[in-house]
Write a structure and sequence with these properties.
heterodimer; A: 141 residues; mainly alpha; Hypothetical Protein Yqey, Chain: A, domain1; B: 701 residues; alpha/beta; TIM Barrel; Rossmann fold; 2 domains; four-stranded parallel sheet; 28 helices; 11% strand
Chain lengths: 141, 701
C-alpha cells in the first residue's frame, strides 16, 4: 500500500502531476491549446476523477479537515453519476418532494446498486430517517 | 445538545450532532470555561490549530457564548489570527443593468486587472444566465488568468453552466439557522450537503451562504439570538464538508445593521466561520447603510485584519449597474478603497490600475467576446456598440445590447450546448491565443481539484490555499505582512502630487505672469528712513519659481492690490525680497525692521501674509492671513490698506477671512508642504535682503 498523501504533496498539479489524469487518461500536459484546437480534448478530459477527489480527501484529512474529506469522498462517488440523476436526486431530497420514506430509500438504493455509491446511499438513508421523524414528507405544492 | 434532548432534535440539531460534533473532543471542549476560551482567541501565543481543534467539539450555543464575550476590537484581532489562509483576497460583483455581454466582458477584464481573486455575476433577466457566463468568462481571461468566476443563478442551471466549463465556483448554497426557514428556503441540510458533493464531483469550488437576519427576514426566528442561529448555520456547513462560507450578514446585513450591536454581531459571525476553519468571504457585501461614515467604519476592521475575501461582492461596477443591489463598496468608492489600503498599509487584495491600461484591457475584452459571438454565429456587434462600451463607466452610457437581444444569445448558447471548448477554439481562430490559453488554464484547475481545498485562490498561476499558505499568526512579525514589493503596488494610486508636479503646474503660470509683471533686482536693501514707507517683504520663490497663491490668485494681482491700497493712503510701498528666511513671521518682522514707518508686510508665494511692526516680538504680529486657500484679492487689498493705516498711527478694523470649517489641511497641506520646500530650498544662511523694482506691464486680469 502506498503512503498516504500529506499537505506536502499539495498542490497535486504541481508536486504530483504524475497522479493527475483525466477520465480518458489524459495528463495535464496533454491538455494544451494545440490539442484543444486539434479537437483532441473533450469536456470529459476536463473533469475531475474519483481518484483526484480521493487524493484531495487524503490531503484534507492530513490538514485536519475530516468533514471536508468526507465531502470529497461522497463527491468521488458522484463523479460517474449522470447529471440528470444527480439533479433528480437533489430534487427528491428537497422538503416535501418525496412523499414517503420509501421513495427516498429507493433513491438511496439506486446509488448503492447502480452507482456503487455506498457513502451517498447511507447519507440519504440518514436523511430519510430524519425527514420522517420531523414530518418532512408533507404537502408543499 | 444546547438544552435539547436527542429525541427532540430538529433536523439542524440532528445534522450538527451527527456531522459536526467530534465526540472525542466534545467532553473536553464543552467543559472549558467560555471566558477562558475567549481569552485564548485573543492570545497570540495560543496557536490557531489548538483553537480549531476545540471548535470541532463545541456546540453552536457554546461557540456563540465564547465569541459574545469579545468586544469589537478583540473580535477583529481574533479574526486576523484565526482566518484560514494567510494571504488576503477580494471578490467583485460584475453585472450591469442591461445584461450587456460586451460590458460584462469589459468590466470583468477591469476587475481582473484590479486584482480581484473572484468575480461573481448575476442577471436582471434569468434567461440571460448563459450569455452572462460566457461574457464574464471571456472577459476574465483577458490580461492574466486565475480569477475564479461564478454565475449566480437557479441551482440546477448554475450547476449546468459549471459543467459546460464557464464557471469555476459557486456560493449560492444557502443554509439557515431554523428548521422552518430552511424548509421555506426549499432545502434541508441533507439536500444542501448533497449539492456540496455534487459541485465537488464536477470539480467546481463551492462555499455556502448564511448570515444573520435571514431567519428574521423569512419570518421564522424562533426568538433565538442572531449569533446563535448563525452558529448553527456554520456548524452545519462544517458538518456538510463545505470548504467555506459567505457570511457576515449578506442579504440580512441591512436588517442586522439596524439592531443595536448589529455590526458587532456581523463581525462575530465572521469570526465563528474562521474559528470553524471555514474559508470566509466576509460579507461587506449588501450595502447596509446610506451613511458613508458607517460604510467606512464597516470595512475597516476587515481591511486591517485581512480576510480570505474581504468583500463577498465588492461592486466593481457602478452602484446602479449592480444586479445584486448596491454593495457596501461600489465602483464609485474604488479610489477610496485603494487609498485606504495605502493609508493603513493594509492589503485589501486590490492594486491601482492606470487608466490607459484599463482602456486597453476593456477594448481587448470587447473584441474577444465579439469575436466569440461572431465565430459561433451568435451575434455581430457593431463598432459603435463596441466603442460605446469600452469608454463607458456604466450602462447608462452605452449603445449596446438590450436584455431582449441578450436573451436570444443566451438561449442559443444553452440550446446548442456550447461549451468552453468551443469558446476556446473560437478565440484561437480569431487571434486571441493568450485569452484562449488563460481560459483553458482556468478550466484545467478542475482536473486536479487542488482549488477545492479550503480558502483556495490562484495567485501568479499557482493555487494558494489554507493548505499551502496557512495563517500562522503568532504575534508581531508573523502572519501576513505587506512585502516591500506589495507596499509599492499599494502606493501606486493615481494623481500623486510631488514637487515635480507642483513645479510643472507652476510653470504653466510662469508665461502668463511674465506678461503681467517684471521683478528687477536693484541692489542690497538698506534701512528706510521715510516715515511714509511701508515695506512689503516677499519670500525667496515669490514670482521666481512660484506664481500663484493656493487660492489660485496671480501673485502680480496680489502684489498690485496691496501696493495700490498703500499708495491710496499717500504712502510709499517698497518691495524687498528676503532670502535668509521663508517663514511668514520673520518675513514680516524683517520687513517692518527695514521699513521707515516701522510697519511691514511679509508674504509667501502661497499667499500666507502677515502685517508686522518693528517693535513687536516675531510671533506677535498685528494681523495674519493664515488660511491662504480661502484668502481673496479683496482681503489682500484690505491688508495693504490696514498696513498703511498702522503706519499712519491709526487702529483699523483687522481684516477677517471668514472660514466655514473647511478641512484645508487635508486639501492643501500636501501641496503646501511641497511649495514650502521649494521656498526653503532657495533660502541661504544670512543672505542679504534685496530691493526689488516691480513693473506691472499692462495686462489686466
Amino acid at each position: 500500500m502506498t503512503a498516504k498523501l500529506t499537505v506536502a504533496d499539495y498542490p497535486l498539479a504541481e508536486t504530483r502531476s504524475d497522479r493527475i489524469k483525466g477520465k480518458r487518461g489524459k495528463s495535464l500536459d496533454d491538455i494544451t491549446l494545440d490539442s484543444v484546437v486539434a479537437g483532441r480534448v473533450t469536456m470529459e478530459d476536463l473533469r475531475i476523477t474519483p481518484q483526484a477527489l480521493a487524493d484531495q480527501a487524503e490531503i484534507s484529512r492530513a490538514a485536519g479537515r475530516p468533514t471536508l474529506a468526507l465531502n470529497f469522498e461522497r463527491a468521488a462517488e458522484l463523479v460517474g453519476v449522470p447529471q440528470d440523476f444527480i439533479m433528480s436526486s437533489y430534487e427528491m431530497l428537497r422538503p416535501g418532494r418525496a412523499k414517503s420514506r420509501e421513495q427516498l430509500l429507493e433513491v438511496a438504493n439506486t446509488f448503492r446498486q447502480v452507482y456503487k455509491a455506498e457513502r451517498m446511499a447511507k447519507f440519504i438513508e440518514e436523511a430519510a430517517d430524519t425527514y420522517e421523524r420531523r414530518g418532512l414528507f408533507t404537502y408543499r405544492f | 445538545m444546547d438544552g435539547v434532548l436527542a429525541h427532540d432534535f430538529d433536523m439542524i440539531d440532528e445534522f450538527i450532532a451527527r456531522h459536526h460534533l467530534d465526540p472525542e473532543i466534545a467532553p473536553e471542549a464543552m467543559a472549558m470555561d467560555s471566558g477562558e476560551v475567549a481569552r485564548m482567541l485573543v492570545d497570540m501565543n495560543v496557536p490557531r490549530e489548538q483553537l480549531v481543534r476545540l471548535a470541532h467539539g463545541m456546540t453552536p450555543a457554546k461557540l456563540a457564548d465564547v465569541v459574545s464575550r469579545l468586544n469589537a476590537l478583540e473580535i477583529s484581532f481574533a479574526y486576523s489570527k484565526m482566518r484560514a489562509r494567510k494571504t488576503p483576497g477580494n471578490q467583485a460583483h460584475v453585472t450591469n443593468a442591461k445584461d450587456d455581454p460586451l460590458q460584462l466582458a469589459a468590466d470583468a477584464a477591469t476587475a481582473v486587472a484590479f486584482g480581484f481573486d473572484e468575480i461573481e455575476t448575476t442577471m436582471r433577466v434569468s434567461r440571460n444566465a448563459w450569455s452572462n457566463a460566457v461574457a464574464c468568462a471571456v472577459g476574465a481571461a483577458v490580461g492574466r488568468w486565475g480569477t475564479l468566476f461564478q454565475c449566480s443563478s437557479e441551482e440546477a442551471e448554475e450547476l449546468r453552466i459549471g459543467m459546460a466549463g464557464f464557471t469555476s465556483y459557486a456560493e449560492t448554497v444557502s443554509v439557515y439557522g431554523t428548521e422552518k426557514t430552511f424548509v421555506d428556503g426549499d432545502d434541508t441540510p441533507w439536500s444542501k450537503a448533497f449539492l456540496a458533493a455534487a459541485y465537488a464531483s464536477r470539480g467546481i469550488k463551492m462555499r455556502c451562504t448564511s448570515g444573520a437576519g435571514s431567519e428574521l427576514l423569512m419570518g421564522f426566528h424562533e426568538s433565538k439570538s442572531l449569533l446563535y442561529l448563525e452558529a448553527r448555520c456554520l456548524c452545519l456547513q462544517r458538518g456538510m464538508g463545505a470548504q467555506g462560507t459567505q457570511n457576515g450578514g449578506i442579504d440580512g446585513a441591512p436588517l442586522t445593521a439596524t439592531v443595536p450591536g448589529g455590526i458587532r454581531e456581523l463581525m462575530a459571525e465572521n469570526l465563528l466561520a474562521v474559528w470553524l476553519d471555514l474559508e470566509c468571504a466576509s460579507g461587506n457585501d449588501a450595502r447596509s447603510t446610506e451613511s458613508e461614515i458607517r460604510v467606512g467604519a464597516k470595512i475597516l476592521p476587515f481591511l486591517i485584519s485581512g480576510s480570505d475575501l474581504i468583500c463577498s461582492g465588492f461592486g466593481s461596477i457602478l452602484a446602479y449597474d449592480n444586479s445584486f443591489n448596491p454593495s457596501l463598496i461600489n465602483g464609485e468608492e474604488m479610489e477610496d478603497f485603494l487609498v485606504l489600503q495605502r493609508d493603513f498599509e493594509a492589503d485589501g487584495g486590490l492594486t491601482p490600475l492606470p487608466e490607459e491600461r484599463a482602456l486597453d484591457l476593456r477594448s481587448r475584452a470587447v473584441e474577444a467576446i465579439s469575436a466569440v459571438f461572431e465565430e459561433l454565429g451568435l451575434s455581430t456587434p457593431t463598432s459603435d456598440m463596441k466603442q460605446s462600451v469600452v469608454v463607458a463607466s456604466g450602462s447608462d452610457e452605452t449603445r449596446s445590447y438590450t436584455p431582449r437581444d441578450v436573451a436570444k444569445i443566451s438561449e442559443a448558447i444553452k440550446e446548442r450546448e456550447i461549451t468552453v471548448i468551443e469558446v476556446i477554439m473560437a478565440l484561437v481562430k480569431r487571434g486571441f491565443a493568450d485569452e484562449a490559453q488563460n481560459l483553458l488554464s482556468l478550466v484545467k484547475l478542475r482536473v486536479s481539484g487542488d482549488y477545492l481545498q479550503t480558502s483556495a485562490m490562484v495567485r501568479k498561476c499557482k493555487v494558494v490555499s489554507a493548505v499551502n499558505d496557512p495563517n500562522t499568526y503568532l504575534g508581531p512579525g508573523t502572519g501576513y505582512r505587506v512585502s516591500e514589493e506589495r507596499r509599492l503596488e499599494l502606493n501606486s494610486i493615481r494623481d500623486v502630487l510631488d514637487q515635480k508636479e507642483v513645479l510643472r503646474q507652476e510653470a504653466l503660470h510662469e508665461k502668463d505672469e511674465a506678461k503681467r509683471i517684471q521683478y528687477r533686482v536693484k541692489g542690497p536693501a538698506g534701512q528706510g528712513t521715510d516715515k511714509k514707507e511701508v515695506v512689503i517683504g516677499i519670500s525667496p520663490a515669490f514670482g521666481l519659481n512660484l506664481f500663484q497663491t493656493t487660492a489660485g490668485h496671480r501673485l502680480s494681482d496680489v502684489l498690485k492690490g496691496m501696493i495700490d491700497a498703500i499708495e491710496k493712503r499717500g504712502l510709499k510701498p517698497r518691495i524687498v525680497r528676503f532670502r535668509h528666511t521663508a517663514d511668514t513671521s520673520f518675513l514680516g518682522i524683517s520687513a517692518a525692521t527695514l521699513s521707515g514707518s516701522g510697519i511691514g508686510i511679509g508674504i509667501q508665494a502661497k499667499g500666507t501674509a502677515v502685517i508686522h511692526s518693528r517693535d513687536r516680538l516675531p510671533h506677535n504680529n498685528l494681523e495674519l492671513f493664515s488660511n491662504a486657500p480661502i484668502t481673496r484679492l479683496e482681503h489682500y487689498k484690505g491688508f495693504g490698506a490696514n498696513a498703511a493705516a498702522y503706519a499712519l498711527g491709526e487702529m483699523p478694523e483687522p481684516v477677517v477671512v471668514p472660514t466655514r470649517g473647511e478641512a484645508m489641511g487635508s486639501r492643501y497641506h500636501a501641496r503646501v508642504a511641497l511649495i514650502y520646500a521649494i521656498e526653503t530650498g532657495l533660502t541661504a544662511e544670512g543672505a542679504a535682503p534685496e530691493d526689488i523694482e516691480v513693473k506691472f506691464t499692462g495686462v489686466k486680469s
